[in-house]
Amino acid sequence: MDNDTFGEGAGQARTPRDATTPDFGQSAPTLARTVQLVSGDFLLTVNPVDGSEIEPCPPGERPASPARHTAAERTELQRAAQPPVPAGPPAPRLPLLERDEERRRLVRLLGRGRSVRLTGPAGSGRSALLDTVAEECADLAPDGVVRLSGHNRTPTELLHELYAVVHKAPRHRPDQAGLLELVRDIGAIVLLDDLEFGGAALGELLDAAPECAFLVAATPDVAAPAADSHLEEVFLGGLGRSASLELLQRAVDRPLTEDEANWAGDLWFESEGLPLRFVQAGALLRQCDALRADPEDFDPYTPADRVEGGDVPLPSLAEGAAPAALLASRLSKSARQTLRFAVALGGEVPHQAHLPALVGDTHADAAIGELMSCGLLTPVGARYRLAAGVIAQLTEKGYASDAAAHAHTAAQHYAWWAGHPSVTPERAVAEADAVLAALTALVPGQESGHPSTAVLLARSAAPAFAAGQHWSAWERALRVGSEAARLAGEVAEEAYFHHELGVLALCNGSLERARAELEASIGMRGALADKRGTVAGRRALALVADRAGGPVSGGRTPAGEEVPAARYEESASPPGGVPAAVPLSGLGQLSGPGSVGLRKSADEPAATVSRRETPAGGTWPGRGRSLLGGARRNLVAAGAGALLAAVLGTVVTLGATSDNNDAPGNKVRNGQSANEDDSQNGLDADEPTDGSTMSPGGGGGDPKDPDKVTPGATSSSGAQSTPGGKPSSSSSRPGGKPSTSGRPPTNPETKPPTTPPTKPPSTPPTTPPPSSQPPSSPPPTTSQPPTNPPSGGSSSASAPITSSSAPGSSEPSGSSAGSPVI
User: Is the pLDDT of residue 606 over 50?
Assistant: First the structure.
């Protein structure tokens, strides 16, 4: 899944070159690697030219269940994770003194499956003790012993490294849930050196691998673990006086003189017995022996007053307590230059393969051996860094005076090296600490040209870190590169870094951060007319919107289409619910609770259109705005609902008032009151039909007395009775002309009457008739509203549909007839 393609001139015009890098005169486009990774359920293509591309992983690309490494493969992986053996004569191997009790206790606790925290000051020999424990615990766990370094590592990165050591997972980085599931079954003894976090983070690390026994080594300034972490505490102090003198004697490889023994006793009291001080003190005594033997063998930088007549005095107690400057003054020029680069990089020492190009000496790789023999370096993971206290001692002696220039030189070299096609992502990851140190040193931009070099370095190293699955280094490189691009005014590079940060956030599940970074990148690339970069950003942003469950902010759908008019925040219903349609048998209310029904006849069930209830307060839980006071999507939804209600009302009104000449003569429309022209169709207005029913929202009739009608009751034809027995006048056609069209009756067995009703008076009575029975014929519609509005029942709850704005109608919209205002 590792693909190499040629980029379109990527990095060609900006290939760094310093005095130690020959100019090969490359005119062809440089080779740009594109690496495909499976991250969770994403397929990530690391593209260093236009930006990484991310998409849902196709089924054929999904990796199978990872298999475990064999014991031989684990041994080879652990060997490759150790620091390289330095060139030159090997340093003397010193024994582990006065640590037998701590060693036996650690082995015993780990053998029982207990996790231990080894605490000791810097230089107390924690790493040497871990080496011994690892040899004795090799066969205690089914997955063996796993050595990890906590230097500049987060708990998530440590879990990924533990997973990669135990399982075969090329080009596969599981998501958080998958990682926890895979790590949970690992049974190993994990030796974690240089841990930099504690508290709840350490507890989460231990809980993620319950089948592992952890031995974590940290300094006292690291936060203590939580009280419920069940970690055993083992403190590692300094050596005793006799053990310190024995360690010094073994470092010198000869017996100590009386003066040297007295000097060592004073040093033991000053250093509190830290083994590192006696390792460095042994290097001082060896240098003194070499000066006495042949002073010319040392570098001319050695001060002449230190050698007089072959008599070299012992170092002072202050020099023995802080020996870094004196030791460095007696080393080779390449070693001193290496120390200057290490100070400029914050203590990180470049790999010995880079020293010839940085220092300008073909034999500079031997400097690592010199520094190791003097105790100025300490192994950290797969590389070296300055020992505890060395950087402060060298800074005091002026080794940091030209730190900016050395950092700039290292950044130029690493920018060329990281972008070279022969450098694998694994090699780039092994040098990540030094690369990031050089990058960070240039970010303030105090010197001219430093921000541009930082941009170039981040542009070259970030894709390699991503391909090597060191994503914490990838994120740091992107953030520092983004700041450097802003300082340098390189908008195109800044857009690239924002795009990569968005892709990284999407892989980690941070959708909001991914959206913000991708939108910033798209905006910058749109201003630069970068079509390819804009398309890559829009694809990633569409995937963010798909995972978030809504359209892309900024006016585009997940497919990249423009969203007209409004911007949607999520694909959910409005907080107040979508306004529902109103019933055909009375459009008098538009905001009743529950659901409303659409009936064709009294015998058929209502077609219910659900409407969400609005709780007290007018908003839904978790939302701070009402239907009309929130986002614009709520207004659009409310308008759509109102438009739907208006359309339904118009259709029903037109259907109720239109003429139907083709309807049968013995049928009446459902939902329309009888009028004077219905006598020819056979409707008896004096007696209700046998199949009469009541409206769901109105009053009901007496079953014992069918002629008695209660207020709010309607017949099967849809006419509603008023308290005075008078039918509603809203069933007439606009303009006062009664309708002559009819609908099929509800009960087809009803016989049409033979006697037509009498003509109603021209003026409606002002008082209701004394009898509760309905009149023999309905009164005509007049332009005056009723003088005595009904007092029983709500007229707006079941009144038939009318149009208050119809031609010829003078009834006001707010009359008691309850005509809805759409």
Answer: no
Q: What is the pLDDT of residue 618?
A: 39
Our CA dihedral for 471, 472, 477, 480, rounded to 10 degrees, sits at: 140
Beta partners for residue 215, in sequence order = 116, 191
Task: Please give the domain boundaries of the chain with CATH numbers for all domains.
Answer: 94-238 (3.40.50.300)
Provide the 8-state DSSP code for 448. T
Burial class (CB in 10 A: 0-12, 13-18, 19+), 510: middle
d(CA 184, CA 166): 12
User: b/e string for 645-664 if b means 16 or more Cβ within 10 A?
Assistant: beebbeebbebbbeeeeebe
DSSP 174: -
Q: Which residue has the tokens 């976090």?
A: 197
Give the mean model confidence (pLDDT) for residues 60-73. Answer: 86
Lowest mean pLDDT among 183-197, 316-330, 577-591: 577-591
Work out the percent of the chain whose per-residue pLDDT is above 90. 49
Q: Report, in angstroms and rounded to the nearest whole number, the Rg of the chain calculated over CA atoms.
A: 44
Residue 768: C-alpha distances to residues 21, 730, 765, 776 (Å):
111, 17, 7, 14
Q: Tokens 């007049």 map to which residue?
A: 782
CA dist., res. 185 & res. 65, Å (int): 13
Q: CA 528, CA 236: separation in Å to the nearest integer?
A: 59
Cβ atoms of 80 and 65 closer than 8 Å: no
Q: Measured in whole angstroms, how far is the alpha carbon of residue 317 from the centre of its chain?
A: 55
What dihedral do alpha carbons 414, 10, 510, 67 form, nearest 10°?
A: -70
Integer Cα distance of 450 and 335 in angstroms: 26
Are residues 485 and 459 in contact, defined by beta-carbon separation less than 8 angstroms? Answer: no
* Residue 132, number of CB atoms within 10 A of its CB: 16
Tokens of 542: 């569409």
Provide mean pLDDT across the span 674-697: 42
Sign of the C-alpha dihedral computed for residues 444, 448, 451 and 456 taken in this order: negative
- Of the pLDDT bands very low, low, confident and very high (cuts 50, 70, 90), residue 89 is confident
What is the pLDDT averaged over residues 183-206? 93
Evaluate whether 724 touches 769 at the Cβ level (below 8 Å): yes
Report field, pTM of the whole predicted structure over 0.70: no
In terms of Cα–Cα distance, which of 687, 710, 719 is closest to 798?
Answer: 719
How are beta strands 145-149 and 172-173 bridged, if at all? unpaired
pLDDT 10s digits, 470-498: 999 999 999 999 999 999 999 999 999 99
CB 95 within 8 A of CB 89: no
Asked whether residue 557 carries a pLDDT value surpassing 90, the answer given is: no
- Strand-strand pairing, 116-119 and 213-218: parallel
- What does the pLDDT average to over 694-708? 44
User: Starting at the edge strand that comes first in sequence, how are the strands of the sheet with 213-218 ordered?
Assistant: 145-149, 189-193, 213-218, 116-119, 232-235
Question: Are the CB atoms for 627 and 620 separated by under 8 Å?
Answer: no
| Cβ-contact 526, 534 below 8 angstroms | yes
pLDDT at 653: 56
Classified as helix, coil or strand, 518 is helix
